[in-house]
Amino acid sequence: MLQKLYDWVDERVDITPLWRDIADHEVPEHVNPAHHFSAFVYCFGGLTFFVTVIQILSGMFLTMYYVPDIENAWRSVYYLQTEVAHGQIVRGMHHWGASVVIVMLFLHTLRVFFQGAYKKPRELNWMVGVLLFFIMLGLGLTGYLLPWDNKAYFATQVTLEIAEKVPFIGEATKTLLAGDPNIVGAQTLTRFFAIHVFFLPAALFALMAVHFILIRKQGISGPL
Amino acid sequence: MHKGKGMKFVGDSRITAERKPNIPKDYSEYPGKTEAFWPNFLLKEWLVGAVFLVGFLCLTAAHPAPLEGIADPTTAGYIPLPDWYFLFLYQFLKYEFASGPYFVIGAIVAPGLAFGGLLLAPFLDNRPGRKVSQRPIAVSLMILGIASVFWLTYESAAHVDWETRAEQNTPEMPVEVEIDESHPGYEVYQNNSCIQCHGESLEGGAAAPALTNIDLSVDEIKDIAVNGIGDMPPGQFEGSDEELQQLAEFIVQVNESGD
């Protein structure tokens, strides 16, 4: 039955080469913890991806309740946390995932760095990876404001003050992020929400795609 | 791509009519104990992922995500703190050589050099040798960078009393109560000294707590009005028994309106 369905699609779209491209790649001995336990350091990149998937899924469920508006943002989070079935778990996963993903990214970066895996011909993929790290930090920064509690509000105020003091582009940057040169308020919340939910994830997905395609094309770096 | 005469397509499409076999590559000729990703290695990854997920869910179940009170710009003396992975930058900006007139150094030049160096590492450390011993400068700069980040994070976080912070900022649902100013009790509230400390809308003040969101009966309120409680001295209420009853009923009614 499944085979027939597959053949039906394959005849029309020729998906076998595409599928073999995804499925057929070797896992060399030196990266396989089943053969050398120390190869567990190669897991950090995959775990980063795993936590990113958790973040995407839990974030999607959070937006089913979250309201990006200064009157209701905190109330919707409070409601989610106290009333909604499993709301505390979903929000907890998103909250802790944000920290765990930074830890995993850090460990993955260290692994690549200390193995010198960024050397020719993998320079581009290293730079894409560092940009991914920056985007993840941006997601953390913008997500911190969204519950609209005191720590979110005052931390964001400090962040925007720091941005404002940057010469030449500081004030424009602050206005772009906060929606107003002076007020941290309704506009700031909607802008951070848009950045957190649309702009940065879009950039994240694009760069992740490049990151993975490059790994597949170049193969994993050899043993030291 | 295969081109030329003799090619057959599916209908008028560009999909070739020739089917390719859907069989995995043979890895037996590869060096070492190379394994196929699908499905052998993926199954192991799946198991590791499941163990990781269980640990992660234990963490979320044991420590619910924190939430403080609703953002209130008028909160006095709130000490702002960023999320823990920004603490090192936050701490760096507190030092004399990185703040005030040297702000540009602290906020742009130093982090710019550090993160720019990280981004351009393959070009700064561009010799072919990959071993740690073959690139002492890059490795020692990285270790210095990591050590400073850890040190700055520690310096920033060690002086914070996290438990007190959490206790002082517990989330409380702001209660919106209706003050019925035509209630005879409100008049009593105004004419006695209550309003001076507890405020026009029972919102409380520096000398007295709010009278909203309290869980007291009429008799308990009557007792407190006459005999005082905590810092509130006795003898504050100077009206008749009937007025006392009206006052207590008024306060209870306001509290019920907020539920």
Fold and architecture overview:
The complex is a heterodimer of chains A (224) and B (259). With 224 residues, chain A is mainly alpha-helical. Chain A has one domain (44-218): Up-down Bundle (Cytochrome Bc1 Complex, Chain C). Helix content of chain A is 71%, strand content 1%. Chain A contains 9 helices and 1 strand; from the N terminus they run H-H-E-H-H-H-H-H-H-H. In chain A, helix 3 runs antiparallel to helix 5 and helix 6 (123-145) runs antiparallel to helix 9. The longest helix of chain A has 33 residues, at 186-218. Chain A is globular and about 55 Å long. In chain A, 36% of the residues are buried. Chain B is an all-alpha fold and 259 residues long. Chain B contains 10 helices and 1 strand, in the order E-H-H-H-H-H-H-H-H-H-H. Chain B has helices at residues 37-62, 87-92, 103-119, 121-124, 136-158, 162-168, 184-191, 194-198, 218-227, 241-257, and one strand at residues 35-36. The chains are: A mainly alpha (224), B mainly alpha (259). Chains A and B meet through helix 1, helix 2, strand 1, helix 3 and helix 4 of A and strand 1, helix 1, helix 3, helix 4 and helix 5 of B. Strand 1 of chain A pairs antiparallel with strand 1 (35-36) of chain B, so a sheet runs across the interface.
Q: What level of helicity do the residues of chain B show?
A: 40-55%
CATH superfamily of chain A: Cytochrome Bc1 Complex, Chain C
Low-confidence stretches of chain A: none
Structural class of chain B: mainly alpha
Domains of chain A (count) = 1
Please state the second-level CATH architecture of chain A: Up-down Bundle
The CATH topology of chain A turns out to be: Cytochrome Bc1 Complex, Chain C
